[in-house]
Automatic annotation (TrEMBL), chains A, B:
One of its GO terms (molecular function) is NAD+ binding. Gene3D superfamilies: NAD(P)-binding Rossmann-like Domain (3.40.50.720). Residues 78-357 form the Prephenate/arogenate dehydrogenase domain. GO terms for biological process: tyrosine biosynthetic process. This is Prephenate/arogenate dehydrogenase domain-containing protein.
Amino acid sequence: MASFHLCNSIANVNQTKTNLSLMLASSTSSTTTPIIKLNSNLGNQSISSKQNHIANHIDKSMEPSISSSTSIVPEFPLKIGIIGLGEFGQFLAKAFKRQGHNVLGTSRSDYSEYCQEHGIEFYRHVNGLCEAQPDVILICSSILSTEDVVRKIPFHKLKPNTILADVLSVKEYARNLLLDVVPEGFGILCTHPMFGKFSGKNSWEGLRFVYDKVRISENRIQERKCEQFLSIFQDEGCQMVEMTCEEHDRYAAESQFITHMVARILSNMNLESTPINTKNYETLMELTHTTVSHSSDLFDGLFLYNLNAMEQIEKLDRAFETVKQNLFGKLRSTLRTQIEEKVTIDTSADRPSTYFLPNSNNVTDLSSFSLVPKQGKQDASVELKTEVQHASV
Amino acid sequence: MASFHLCNSIANVNQTKTNLSLMLASSTSSTTTPIIKLNSNLGNQSISSKQNHIANHIDKSMEPSISSSTSIVPEFPLKIGIIGLGEFGQFLAKAFKRQGHNVLGTSRSDYSEYCQEHGIEFYRHVNGLCEAQPDVILICSSILSTEDVVRKIPFHKLKPNTILADVLSVKEYARNLLLDVVPEGFGILCTHPMFGKFSGKNSWEGLRFVYDKVRISENRIQERKCEQFLSIFQDEGCQMVEMTCEEHDRYAAESQFITHMVARILSNMNLESTPINTKNYETLMELTHTTVSHSSDLFDGLFLYNLNAMEQIEKLDRAFETVKQNLFGKLRSTLRTQIEEKVTIDTSADRPSTYFLPNSNNVTDLSSFSLVPKQGKQDASVELKTEVQHASV
C-alpha cells in the first residue's frame, strides 16, 4: 500500500506530461577467450559463460589461507588506480598489493599516511592519478557519489586502452553511467565482489565475484588487461560469475537487498540479547549487526539505484501481511470455539476447554493471554451464553 | 494497523459485556538448595538463581562430544514417563537413556516398534503409563494439544510426590494449566529446552535450558527427583537458566518468536538461491529453512499462547513501516532534486545530473530505473521546465 502512496506523492510533485524518448543503452559485452597466456591460472580454468551459472556451492570447510606478508610479483604487473580509498577500496588494494600489482589511489579525504604505510601511491587529485596513466581505473566510491566521481575523470590524460572498472552493488546504473560518460576506445568492466571485510576477512575462497565485460575491445592490449585484472580475483579463490548487469540486479534485489532490508528492519526494532537466546536468534542478531555496519548510503543506493528493489519490498509487504492474517485468523477461530463451547456445552470442572486463552471481555487489548479464570467461571459462562444467544437472534 | 482490524472483527463476533473476575495464578516457585548429594555434578555447580541471569555466552569452539553408545548408570536412576513421542520427545528420550534412566512413553500414535528399538517401555494408553508409576511425567505434546493431554492424566494412579514437567515453548500458559489441573501434592516443574534436533544435534554444550520450579514441595523425595531431573540437562552441558514463566515469555517473544516470525515471512516469499548469494543471504535462507521445518502448530502456539507475541508483531510492523518510509522519502527527495535541476540549470552534456534515476513520465510504474535518456534530452528538459513553472503559478 505504501508504495502506492509514494506514487501518488510523486504524481503531486510532478504534474507534467513530458515525452522523453528513452532507450536502454545497449551492452556491447564481449565474451572472447583470452589469447595471451597470463602469469596466472586463468588460462587453465576458463571463466564460466553467461549461459552456465556456477553451481551455488561454498565449501563450508574453508580455512583462512591468506598470508598478508606473501607477495607474488607477476610477470607484467598491472598499474591499478583506485578512486575512493574508503573501507572497501582499502580492502581491495591489499589483495592487489599482495599479488604484486602497482596500486595508485586518490580520494576526497587525505589518505597519504595510510597509503605510505601500505605501499600505495597517493594522489591528492584525480588529475595526478590519471597523469600516472594506470592500466585500470577502479571506481570504489559510494553508489550515491559515483556519477560525480566518473564525470570528473580527465579522460584525455589517460593512455588508450585504459579500462574503467567499478565495484558498485548496483550494476545497470553503473553500466549506463559508464557507457554514457566514458569516451569510445576505453574499456568498461562492471564488477561486483559479493563480499566485504566481514565475509572476506580471512579468505576470498568460494566467495562470488560477478562481472560483465560491458565494453572490452578485441585488441590484445585491452583484452589482456581485462583478463589479468579478473585473474586477481580468480587467484584469490573467488567463484567467478559472468552475467549481464540486468541479471545481476534482478538476483541482487532478491538476495542482497532483501538481506539488507530485513537487517535494517530488525535493527530498527533494537533487538537485544536475552538470557534465553536460541542459536537462530543469535544468528539473526549477528547478521543484523554485520549488515547494518555498512553505511546507510549503501542501503539507500541498493534501493534507489536498483530497478527491482521496489518489487521486493512489495513482496516482503505481502508476505508479512499473509503471515499476520494467518495468525489473526487462527486467533479469531480459537476465540469463536471458546464462545461456542461455552454456549453449547454445560460447564464442568474437568472437561477440556480453552479457558487459558484470553477471555472475551479482555480481548480488545489482548492483554489477558494466559490468565486463569479462578473465580466466577460458572457464572461468567452462563452470562456469556445468554449474551451470545441474544446476539445471534 | 492489521491488529486493530483484528480487534474490530473480534468485537463484531462477540458483542457481549461479561464481567469475569480474573486472577493470575500465583507461582509457588521454590528455590531451595539441593540437600541430597546426587550422583552428578549438580551438587558442585549450583544452579544460577533467578536474580543472576547467566551471562549470554556460547563457546563458539564447541565440538561434538556426545557418543550415543556411552551409557552411565546413575546410583538412583529416575523412571521418566514421556507423554508425546514425537520428534522432540524422542530427542529428549535419547539423552535420558544415555544417562542411564528408565524411560517409559505413550503417544497418540503407535510407537511400539520405535520404543522397542530404543529401550523405551511403550504404553498404548496413558493409564498404563501411570500405573507403572514414573517419578517424573514429562509432557512433550504440542502447545495446542497439551491441555487435552494434561486433563486426561489419571492422577489417582500415580504415586505421591510424582513431578509433572513440561517442555512447552510458552511457559505462563503451561504453568497456569498445570496449577489448575494437577492435584495438590504432585510437583510441577515448567521447563523449556531452548534447542532442538538441529541446534542440539551434536551436543547440548552451552545450549540454554530454562526452568521454573513452579510447585516443588520441600519434602526430600520431591526435591531430590527435581534436582536429579534437572541434572540430566546440566550434565549434558546445558546453560541452566532459572527464571519465572512470565520472564521467560517476555524474553521468548523478543527472541524466539521474532525469529520464527521473520522465518515464516521469508518462507512465504519463497526465497530462492541465486548464482550470486552473499554469505549473509545464505545464512538467512538456512535460518528460514531450519525454523520453518518446525510444525506450523509450534509457530501458531508461540503466537496464540504467549501474551507478549502480539506486541512484538506490532513492533515489527512499525519498524518495517519506518524503514519503508525512510527509503520512500529518499526517493522523493532525489526526484525533487532531479526536477529542480532541470528547472534551474541550463542543460549541458557534461554537467553532473541525476538522469540515471527514473524519468518523470515513467515514475508511476517505477520501471524506468537505470534508463539512460539518449535522445531528446534537451527538448524534454525544456518541456519539463515550462510545465513545472506553469504548475507552480
